[in-house]
Amino acid sequence: MKNWIIVFALTNLLFPIPALAESGTIDVDVGDMPVSISGWIEEENAFTGNIRLTANGSDINEFLFIASDLKPEEGDRIIGRQNVAILGDLNLKKGVPKNLHITISNVKDPGIYRGWIELLLPDNKKSQFLNLTLMAKSRPKLTLLPGIDKISLKLVNSDDILAKLVLPAAAFTDRWEIQIDNPTMVDVNVTSSSIALTGEKTGYQLTKKSLSLPYDEKILPANKISVLNLTLNRMEIPADSYSGNIYLIMKGSTDRLTIPIAINTRIGPWRAVLALFFGIILGWLFRYAQKKEPQSKALKYVYRLESDIRKTDPGDQQILLPMIEKVRGEVYKEKLETVQAELKAIEARMQTLKELREIEKNLKTLGNNDYVGQIDSIRHKIKMKKDEDAKNDLEGLLKALRGTLDMGQEGPKENLKVVSSANEAAQASKRAKEAAEGADELKKQGGQDAIQQLQQKLKNSIIKIANNSDQFQAETALWILPPLLYLILLLLSLAMGFRSEYIEKGLTFGTNPFGDYMSLILWGITTDIAVSGINGLIGKKEGSTPG
């Protein structure tokens, strides 16, 4: 019996029985069970995981890797088993851990996918089953719709009636809808927003008091166009041109959506209109000053001559000042046709009176009182504006003085003074006479012109009475058309100026008050002058047409 046992043991040692031999197995690292892979769809080769295997019992030259389809928790889009692969040399040394890579490709949609993999030993048909979980993520991505990828607003910080009449409805926008496209298959969570806008001319920075976005987090659904409401407080936005960006912060993304924004804000139109009318008033005053220039010149002449008169003898002042006051009244009434001639006459009379005083002085020095009465008579005639009589009397006085002084009654030096004064007085009297005659002639002409105008009016009246339609046309052309044309041209020009300087060019009107208002004031000035000139030309053209 013992011999049989010994023979069996030796035989078993030399020739092992295969059925009793221990086969190898594959151990999976505990940390890799189940197999979990995650990544971003937008990234290349994003879905790769590691698995650590160890051969147990014996070396494993090769094993089979078998994968199932990966099915989503939601939806029905399956990732086929052919897209699941293991990379690396599939041989394992007994007891030596080895890292292998599992890759999943052709992942299109985000979500959680589940399946399994099998590690199969072909020689003994033993399998190692492992659960496989894929978490496919999509990075948040937002875009603006084409054509509205920049916000551009033209606002007015006023709600008055005039503003609503002249400006478009868009200028009164209090809310702007920002349309945002979420092209991904996952919801995007906008966690916060920020707005940065600065005035180009003033450097003023807009705050949340001026414009704002929703403060709470907002979920933008997947594959949909959502709206974010931008709230605008126009009254808190000073006039200026603002530019900057709106920033949207998304959960799970290091990127942010940047939305360019530009806002042009102007003040209400009332101040612009007032500036225009102020310019018109200045233009009217300018034209008025031009119109009154002849009157101003005549009045200056009056004041200058009055000043000279007040430097003369008090007796002469009593004669001349009433004359100057009468001429001043004519100047005030703009009766300027004869003023110049009358002032020259008064100036000549003043000179005559001054020379008469000089004659009196010289005669008094000589002790000669023979001509006092004659001199007083000449003064009286000057006072009565009898310049012709005064001239004749002065010539007679000059002859008498020459005759008397030539007889040798007085010294030669004193004689010369008297004769010279008398001669100057005579010349001044002559000038006074000529000036007075000129004034009279102008008055006659003015009277004749007035008579002729009256006759023409009477003639026209007769014609108008004979033809009522002609009368209506003529009266309309005289009394209605000129002011109507002026008003129409003025309003049209004002409208053009307002449109040009405020509506079209004035997107930021009020930012630079001096420049903005001055442009309108100058427009008003030139408008009034131009319209008046045009209307005047029309009037002249109509007036030159024969009736």
What percentage of residues falls in helices of 4 or more residues? 40-55%
Number of strands: 18
Number of separate domains:
4
Query: What is the average per-residue confidence, as pLDDT, rounded to a whole number?
Result: 76
Alpha-beta classification: alpha+beta
Percent strand equals 15-25%
Question: Stretches where pLDDT falls below 50 for ≥5 residues?
Answer: 1-22, 407-418, 461-477, 537-547
Specify the number of helices.
11
Order of helices and strands: HEEEEEEEEEEEHEEEEEEEHHHHHHHHH
Largest sheet: 5 strands, mixed
Taking the alpha carbons of the first and last residues, their distance comes to 169 Å
Q: Tell me, what's the shape?
A: rod-shaped
Radius of gyration: 57 Å
Commentary on this structure:
By secondary structure, this protein is α+β, with helices and mostly antiparallel strands. It has helices spanning 2-14, 161-166, 270-291, 293-309, 314-332, 339-366, 372-383, 387-406, 412-466, 468-504, 513-543; strands spanning 25-28, 35-40, 48-56, 64-67, 71-72, 84-87, 98-104, 111-121, 126-137, 143-144, 151-156, 175-182, 188-199, 211-212, 218-220, 224-232, 240-250, 256-266. Strands 2, 4, 5, 8 and 9 form a five-stranded mixed beta sheet that branches. A five-stranded mixed beta sheet has the order 11-18-17-13-15, with no helix packed on it. Strands 1-3-7-6 form a four-stranded antiparallel beta sheet, with no helix packed on it. Strand 17 (240-250) and strand 18 form a beta hairpin. Residues 1-22, 407-418, 461-477 and 537-547 have low confidence and may be disordered. The chain contains eleven helices and 18 strands. It has four domains: 20-137, Immunoglobulins (Immunoglobulin-like); 143-268, Immunoglobulins (Immunoglobulin-like); 312-459, no CATH class; 467-543, no CATH class.
